[in-house]
Amino acid sequence: MPVYPFAPEHPYPAAVNRVMEAYEYLLSLGKQPQNIVIAGDSAGGGLTLATLLHIRDKGLEQPRCAVTFSPGSNAFPDDKILDALDPSDAMLSADIIRTVIDIYIPNLEDRSHPYASPCLGDYTGICPLLITASTDEVLYADGKRVRRAAEQAGVRVEWIERPGVFHVWPIMVPFLPEANKDLKRVVAFIKDA
């Protein structure tokens, strides 16, 4: 698991650059891209997406696939959508999302870069993606935007959407029945990629 620097001490693009270095390090060790899966949840899901775009932009081979649980992907969220989902999100809030964006990407000019807002990226040439999103969470629209962008670019996307669960629910194995069921789908997706 790569260790990467955190904001506010190390704002964007420090984390993206460090995770890219980790991928290049694995390749330098002779690891084959088809044996690498990149995964992340929440902000780490956005970092996963940014890394895939960065890998492609550097002309490197994509990993086998990527898994994102409730990815944060948009530095320009729609306030109406955030505020509408705020009451139903048991873990995050609209204010938390706005604050995290301000801390992680303090330079307003950086926010439109696809590594900062992966939902704005061109997903041409990106590996297969699995995206989960709860219909009750404030990041629901982020996942949907990435799905749309990836599918428009011809990327194979496995989409897992659930109502009545919370942000990043698949990590709650073995306690949550939905997590137990969806983890099997994640494993099948990775094997099939």
Characterization of this structure:
The protein is of the alpha/beta class. The chain has 6 helices and 4 strands, in the order αβαβααβαβα. It has a 4-stranded parallel sheet with strand order 1-2-3-4, with helices on both faces. Helix 5 (140-152) links the parallel strand 3 and strand 4 (157-162). The radius of gyration is 16 Å and the shape is globular.
What keyword list fits this structure?
193 residues, alpha/beta, Rossmann fold, four-stranded parallel beta sheet, 6 helices, 40% helix
| Assembly state of the chains shown | single chain
CATH topology: Rossmann fold
Radius of gyration: 16 Å
Show unreliable segments. Answer: none
In short:
The protein is an alpha/beta fold and 193 residues long. Helices cover 40% and strands 11% of the residues.
List the helices and strands and how they pair.
Layout: H1 14-28, E1 37-41, H2 43-57, E2 65-69, H3 79-85, H4 94-104, E3 129-134, H5 140-152, E4 157-162, H6 177-192
Parallel strand pairs: 1-2, 2-3, 3-4
